[in-house]
Amino acid sequence: MTVSDGDIHMCEDGPREAPALLLIHGSASSTRSWRAMVPLLTGSHRVIRIDLLGHGRSAKPADRSYAVPDQARRAGMALDRLGVAHSVVVGHSSGGAVATALAEERPGLVSALALINTGPGLDAFIASESAATGPSQWPPTKEQLRMFASTAVSRPGYRIPEELLDDVRRMTHHTYTATMQAIRSYLEQRTLPDRLAVLGKPLLVLFGEDDRRWRSSSASDYRAVPGAEVELLPGLGHSPLLEDPPRTATRLLAFTTTHSVRVD
């Protein structure tokens, strides 16, 4: 799909007449990160996945903005092109910031939000792990990628699929660094609970209790949002959608069933 400033890759599964569910990946990831979840969601939803600009199979221009509101604007344009008037929006990690920005920019489009292991603010970041949260050279070495992946999951014996490591390799140094800086800038301006508290949108927050990138205790910050549902997932780390898709999907579906807008 071509939007105003680049080609955006999207995937669509499930019946078109079903309530829409938009899934937004985190930094240095892609639509592939949701693959195991999709079959668990399409029985009741029109599931739409997007590769944000600079990621996956989307364009990676060096002269475009990777600011969070601009990524959200593109996601909104993509939903418009698909004829989606209302959607529950789900974001994993920094994808939750893009989901929040989409609700800020297009409140009529977003019927509810679900954030999965999305740090509420920069003070929740686990600084002691910062050396392992991203490659320090480009292209990244295999060892750097494995270090990067080591903080993405906590379930014993689980290995990040090679195709997800390839998503990091496919990024350019510019798109990687610009994306990371954009997320930092967005959180520096205002925390996500502060942004969400004034939107009046139903909110579900799921957080793997053993997250090694963001303090799982910070999930309680989202209780400042009126009516927010906050749940820790024992035994899981930063990526519940990879580590335990059935448990993650079950909790997500319980929320979306209540808050989805059906197509007439």
* Strand order of the biggest β-sheet: 3-5-4-6-7-8-9
Shape: globular
Give the CATH H-level superfamily.
Alpha/Beta hydrolase fold, catalytic domain
- Supply Rg: 17 Å
Unreliable sequence segments: none
Write the CATH architecture name.
3-Layer(aba) Sandwich
Query: Residue-averaged pLDDT, rounded?
Result: 93
Count of separate structural domains: 1
Sheet bearing the most strands, described? 7 strands, mixed
Strand content: 15-25%
Structural class: alpha/beta
Describe what this molecule looks like in 3D.
Helix 2 (68-81) crosses helix 3 (95-105). It is globular and about 45 Å long. With 264 residues, it is of the alpha/beta class. The protein is 34% helix and 16% strand. It is built from 9 helices and 9 strands. The strands form 2 sheets. The chain has a 7-stranded mixed beta sheet, sandwiched between helices. It starts with a strand and ends in a 5-residue tail after the last helix. The relative contact order is 0.18. The chain has a single domain (2-259), classed as Rossmann fold.
